[in-house]
Write a structure and sequence with these properties.
Structural class: alpha/beta
Order of helices and strands: HHEHEHEHEHEHEEHHHEHEHEEEH
Number of helices: 13
Strand content: 5-15%
Distance between the termini: 57 Å
Shape: globular
Largest sheet: 7 strands, mixed
Strand order of the largest sheet: 1-7-6-5-4-2-3
Bound molecules: pyridoxal-5'-phosphate
Oligomer: single chain
Length: about 400
């Protein structure tokens, strides 16, 4: 696949600059600073029946994805990236590179959709999976079987209980064994954590969340580190065959969203810390789960491996499930909606614990902090807490 020329390849600029200018590309036709949208599914062959670029057919060569893929690869410190129709499409595609009989070590507190997919698809297909405690790398080391374990699947901070995995220590367990270390980096984003720089092989994203950031695109991404070229080639081929690609309009919106990624994530992280401190001091709140609080068990590790903030997500526990429901029902500003990582703040209840390895407390409320004025968000939570 042909990539546009990277105008920054000989300049040292920060990732924030790369994101703001979406790698600085100018449309060669019009000199527009924003790329066009090409909905064309097919492109014409030359007179000698070759293609000037790619295969000419969108399922194999989604040209509209290459700019967002190249930008995300740069932000994550990877070599390549592939966009998918959703986060789950990308995650499932990573797992489907395994064979029956292979062994996987996965954290026990992961995004619920991933846990469900592992248990309802991967395990029945014949892949053996051991689930281990997120915050205890010794547990991971005990479950790891050199020569047999093909993949270690991590997520930090985990969603929705915000446990922290020490990525450097986890990579240390796997090193030189030939197993792939895969990290779901949806929650911290490359703004706050870059797992490939810590030795991970693959990063996966629900680009639906912070990367796009505006709750208007469903998208996924897989980023490949320096030594995972063979996996990239295989997954590119598989995506061509299966077609779980991102459409041109969505890819265009995603690239636009990524231009403001650094502003949005930093703002959300600053506000989340302020809100966590407010909730932590409130008598109606039993516990706040946020790695930015000094009392959080993963705080020291998070401080070391997260760059400039602890993320825009947090959870808090109330007296019981009824109080958690009443609080959410009393919110005036914060929206009661699933998902995370958008410009608007959202709360989500714990609905049930199906497919969870460790149950999430039913009195827990998860909050995805947006980019609104944090004082307004604190005031909304304050009035809701006072009303229950
Ligand atoms: C939402 C989410 C996913 C799944 O992504 P979709 O785009 O909804 O398919 C995966 N991992 C995490 C951490 C998520 O929050």
């Amino acid at each position: 696949m042909r990539r546009p020329e990277d105008p920054f390849k000989n300049h040292v600029v920060s990732r924030e600059t790369l994101a703001a200018q979406a790698l600085g590309w100018i449309d060669p036709e019009t000199r527009a600073v924003i790329p066009p949208i090409h909905p064309g599914v097919t492109t014409e062959r030359n007179r000698d029946l070759t293609y000037s670029r790619g295969t000419g057919y969108m399922r194999g060569t989604p040209e509209s994805c290459v700019q967002a893929e190249a930008l995300l690869a740069r932000l994550e410190g990877g070599e390549n990236a592939l966009l998918y129709a959703s986060g789950m499409a990308g995650i499932a595609a990573v797992f489907r590179t395994l064979e029956p009989g292979d062994h996987v070590v996965a954290l026990r507190d992961l995004f619920r959709g991933t846990l469900k997919w592992i248990q309802s698809n991967l395990i029945p297909w014949g892949v053996e999976v051991d689930f281990v405690a997120n915050s205890n790398v010794d547990d991971l080391a005990r479950a790891f079987r050199p020569g047999k374990t093909r993949m270690v699947y991590l997520e930090t901070p985990s969603n929705p209980t915000f446990e922290i995995v020490d990525l450097t220590a986890a990579v240390g367990v796997v090193r030189d064994s030939g197993a792939w270390v895969v990290v779901d980096n949806t929650v911290p984003t490359p703004v706050l954590t870059r797992p490939i720089e810590m030795g991970a092989d693959i990063v996966v994203h629900s680009a639906t969340k912070y990367l796009n950031g505006h709750s208007d695109v469903l998208a996924g991404a897989v980023v490949f580190g320096n030594d995972s070229g063979s996996l990239h080639a295989r997954m590119l081929e598989q995506r061509h065959l299966e077609g779980a690609i991102l459409g041109p309009f969505e890819a265009w919106l995603l690239l636009r969203g990524m231009r403001t990624l650094y502003l949005r994530v930093r703002r959300a992280a600053d506000s989340a810390r302020q809100i966590a401190e407010f909730l932590d001091g409130h008598p109606g709140v039993r516990q706040v789960l946020y790695p930015g609080l000094p009392g959080h068990p993963g705080h020291a590790v998070a401080k070391r491996q997260m760059d400039g903030g602890f993320g825009g997500l947090l959870a808090f526990r109330l007296a019981d499930q009824q109080s958690a429901a009443a609080l959410q029902g009393s919110l005036e500003l914060i929206k009661r909606a699933t998902s995370l990582g958008g410009v608007e703040s959202l709360v989500e209840p714990t609905l049930d614990n199906a497919w969870r390895i460790v149950p999430v407390p039913l009195d827990l409320v998860r909050l995805s902090v947006g980019i609104e004025d944090p004082d307004d968000l604190v005031a909304d939570l304050g009035q809701a807490l006072d009303s229950i």
